[in-house]
Amino acid sequence: MKTINDFSFQHKKALIRVDFNVPLDENFNVTDANRIEAAKPTIDAILADGGSVILMSHLGRPKGKEEKYSLKHIVKKTEEVLGKPVHFASDCIGTVAETAAAQLKPGEILLLENLRFYTEEEAGDIEFSKKLAQLGDIYVNDAFGTAHRAHASTTIIAQFFEGKKCFGTLLAKEIESLNRVLKDSEKPVTAVLGGSKVSSKITVIENILDKVDHMIIGGGMTFTFIKALGGQVGDSICEEDKLQLALDILHLAKEKNVHIHIPVDVVAANAFSNDADTQIVDVREIPNGWQGLDAGPKSLENFKEVIMNSKTILWNGPLGVFEMENFAKGTITLGNYIAESTQKGAFSLVGGGDSVAAVKQFGLEPKMSYVSTGGGAMLEMLEGRTLPGIAAILS
Predict the structure, then answer these.
(1) Is 197 a catalytic residue?
(2) pLDDT tens digit sequence for 126-141
(3) For a disulfide at 131, which of 57, 93, 118, 391, Cβ 3.0-4.6 Å?
(4) Candidates 353, 360, 384, 385; catalytic one
(5) How many Cα atoms within 13 Å fall on the side-chain side of residue 2?
């Protein structure tokens, strides 16, 4: 696996695919610069090595060239994060981009306009890829969030950099962290899978059953399993057409000697609202008109024992509706258990939009071994798929 450490960037132009798809407010101010900050180590290292960098990214889902999706809006924030001036090219290919790239001196940074202003980007067009490739000497992919897309700038472009392509610091860390869970894990390994639907996690479950010793199932998925086992789930979210699938998963886990842990009690509410009446009930006996919205205290005690005895922990999905304060306790408590286990030497990997949002919201991010930057990409790797953006660098 080649990284930026395998190249000399002295007087070279590094063409870096970054993921600067950041949220903007109505005045085009960046409201969360995490993705820009995540790319800083790669950019800093190349500049320190005597190179210059050309950054390419998408922003949003524009229909053609839409001013509101222009990357010019993030130049100021990018300069703040990187602590250096950033040149901006008002196009990502053609004369404008080529001239700006040609004028770039060692130590300088150029940001190209939104790649998705061209439909050829998402189509993986080879001619568009070739025009992008002309801008740099070495291709660096540091965008894990888009590594599962076979787009021009993430995959197709790599064929024009034979022997001159590598992973950036961020993408290399993502791959190493996932491999540490999926291939080189220290046992016991525990996977915590939350979220609302079994159907969205089925491939992940099937792929990781061979790699884990314990699996904690939480969130809305809980109730499909409980109903499949004959429990009463009241008005809780439940995939009626996945009951047999839930039983099949439990059977397969037993065959593979994987211990499945499902909540035994829940915080139930009489409406999907933070202001609803609540009660703690047995997960198998949720009354009609009530729905489970968080894991209960007994469940959390059971989960604590599993987490504290784990050496490798994967967390994908919350235990409850953490966006509502009254149903966030399960997710926060679980996060604190994982943080404590990490402090004692376990390796913890958090990934997937909701669990990442939760650890950030509750200040737990610094206490985890690694928090992934790519939701869809991480899920596909957990499903055992080879991501095109990664394969393109390895080939």
Answers:
(1) yes
(2) 999 999 999 999 999 9
(3) 93
(4) 353
(5) 18
Is residue 140 a contact partner of residue 42, using CB atoms and an 8 Å limit?
yes
Active site residue 352: no
* CA 231/CA 262 separation, integer angstroms: 12
Q: Nearest to residue 303, comparing CAs of 266, 258, 346, 333? A: 333
Length of the chain as a residue count: 395
- Nearest alpha carbon to residue 315 among 350, 365, 342: 350
Number of Cβ within 10 Å of residue 162's Cβ equals 8
Tell me how far the alpha carbon of residue 43 is from its chain's centroid: 21
Give 308-355 as a DSSP string: HT-SEEEEES-SS-TTSGGG-HHHHHHHHHHHHHHHTT-EEEE-SHHH
Alpha-carbon span 258 to 338, nearest angstrom: 20
In sequence order, which residues have a C-beta less than 8 Å from that of residue 351 and are 6 or more positions away?
Answer: 314, 315, 316, 371, 372, 374, 375, 378, 379, 382
Q: Which two tokens stand for residue 366?
A: 């610094």
Cis status, amide bond into 62, omega within 30 of 0: no
Among the options 65, 197, 284, 298, which is catalytic? Answer: 197
Tokens of 65: 């060239």
285: CB partners within 8 A, 6+ apart:
231, 232
- The residue from 12, 13, 35, 211 that is catalytic is 35
DSSP state of 150: -
Q: 346: pLDDT confidence band, cut at 50, 70 and 90?
A: very high
pLDDT of residue 308: 98
pLDDT in tens, 231-244: 999 999 999 999 99
Q: What does residue 232 show for φ and ψ, rounded to 5 degrees?
A: -100, 120
Retrieve residue 347's tokens.
């390796």
Within the chain, how many helices (H) and strands (E) appear? 14, 17
**What is the structure's pLDDT at 244?**
96
State the Cα–Cα distance between residues 378 and 171, nearest whole angstrom.
11
Q: Is the pTM of this model over 0.85?
A: yes
Amino acid letter, 70: S
User: Per-residue pLDDT tens for 162-217?
Assistant: 999 999 999 999 999 999 998 999 999 999 999 888 888 888 898 999 999 999 99
Q: Considering the candidates 2, 376, 384, 385, report the single residue annotated as catalytic.
A: 376
Q: Would you state the pLDDT for residue 373?
A: 78
